[in-house]
Description:
Helix content is 56%, strand content 11%. It is α/β, with parallel strands linked by helices. Among the domains are: 30-208, Rossmann fold; 214-279, no CATH class; 291-376, Arc Repressor Mutant, subunit A (Orthogonal Bundle). The strands form four sheets. Strands 2, 3, 4, 5, 6 and 7 form a six-stranded parallel beta sheet that branches. Strands 8-1-11 form a three-stranded antiparallel beta sheet. A three-stranded antiparallel beta sheet has the order 12-14-13. A hairpin with a 2-residue loop joins strand 9 (244-247) and strand 10 (250-253). Helix 12 (281-306) packs across helix 13, helix 21 packs antiparallel against helix 22 (466-480) and helix 23 runs antiparallel to helix 24. The N and C termini lie far apart (89 Å). Pfam families: nSTAND1. This is Tetratricopeptide repeat protein. Residues 12-272 form the Novel STAND NTPase domain.
Amino acid sequence: MIAQSPLGPQSPHVGMRAYDEADREMFRGRGRETRDVAMMWASNRLVVLHGGAGVGKTSLLCAGTVPLLRGEGAHVLPIAHMAYRPAFPVAALADHDPFRLAVLASWYTRASPVHVSEVTIGTFLRRQRRMDGFDRQPPMLGAIDGAEVMLRRSGRRERHRRSFLDELATAMHELPDLHLLLVVRDDALGEAVEFAARLGQEPPATYALEPLTPEAAYEVVEPLGLTGRSGETAAGALVHELRTVRAGSGVQTTSRVQPVLLQLATGRLWEHLAGDSGIAAERLRAEVNLALKDFCAHNLSTIAADHSLPAATLYSWFRSMFGGPQGRAGVPAARSREDVPSAVVDAVQDSHLIRARVRDGGLYYELLHPRLGEPLGQIGDAAIPIRRPGPSARLRQAHRALADGDLELARRHAEAAVRGCSERNLRDLAVMTAFLGDIAYERGDADRAVARYRDAAAIFEAVPDNAAVGWLLTGIGRILLEDDPVEAVRQLRAAAGRLPHELSVQTALGRALGRAGRTRAARAVFEDVLGRDGANREALIAKRTLSGTA
Length: 550
């Protein structure tokens, strides 16, 4: 039996999300990796941090490396996430590059998305970089998490992706103090190394993040405060259980522990056994199996619902594909996609059920960890109730789906976020409604985009947030520029009344006036804008176009 000592009121783990900078005091087991990545990033122009799904790359960066470097006085930008979306109507932007917007708006959260969208990465960074007081530029450390999104073909966004990579390469050449860290999964390492050649950084410094050693896993679990009758620890027993693989009549012990499985098991012990006086080894095994079984079943049920598949179909596919020895040896990627769409396989990896490996030049998928095999065999075919996250988390899922190019899934997540949002929380409701307008805009559905933006503007009016209403009116006006310039003029005049100093709004108004045949008024607007900013690209082009048609 393993007895449990009294527990404090606060759980020593963060649940199933990644650790962030606020969790740095709870982040354990990665001391060596934290120092290694910090040293590499500070001393190399380009570093590629890679590892499998669920291995803890984001946690290492957010709760380990970044706080360490900041504590030493380094100039570390906030971590950029490729799925990041500022709360701003994208239709209001004259030039919307989703890759540039995601990175620069992450690095400089207080910067206006309008200003981010108007200049190149290099120009923007030169404006922002600071002096350290010794008449030299300190290294500017910038990280991009989930960088595989920008390294792989992007369908309808391919033109923007290529333009963004060109800008990033130019910025690296123009700014010798910029140190870039790209965070990718193992299967995107090849693309990252290839991109390094464009940056003049071939071969790049690379760091492979592996699952936890038993000693590191013990360090993570030890704060649970579990002790045994003869002095042994439940932390040690739990770590051993997560390394124990039972297949048929044989038992094997793996050399590493997957962090995501450790978080799962730790969370269940904390939630269900905190008041127990002792934990038998048999019960520990059962509790771990229950945690892992629920993890597998819930994620598969959620993926099935998201992709309109019967849960039983997805369960059967997953068991047949990854439940036997082939799940440990690796399934060729092409074979894994024979019976389900590629988006489903990607979602299964995103849910930390499988991981990708490149072997002999080919891509394979394997079970995240062999320890999942035992509970996987206990899953039936019946769907289980899905526990959806709250509105804010659901909105982040919508952002991720949009970044992945799945507009329909993004819409469904965003609509669910709106339905789940309390009417008392007007600002969040307005942001979510405006994002539905963004999705419609990116789908090319102008009528729905305008309707969603109008709804969001009405909510922001009640907040009240005058500037937010102004930008939504700007988005509506820009959408209507081509097909209804007269109405566009009305909307943009109203926007300009709320945002009188925003040259982007004035320029859009000038364009609408020109489209409506009011060339003299349009020219006056452009001259006013250029009088305040002679390099305003949109105004220069619009004035030149107007002169050619006048």
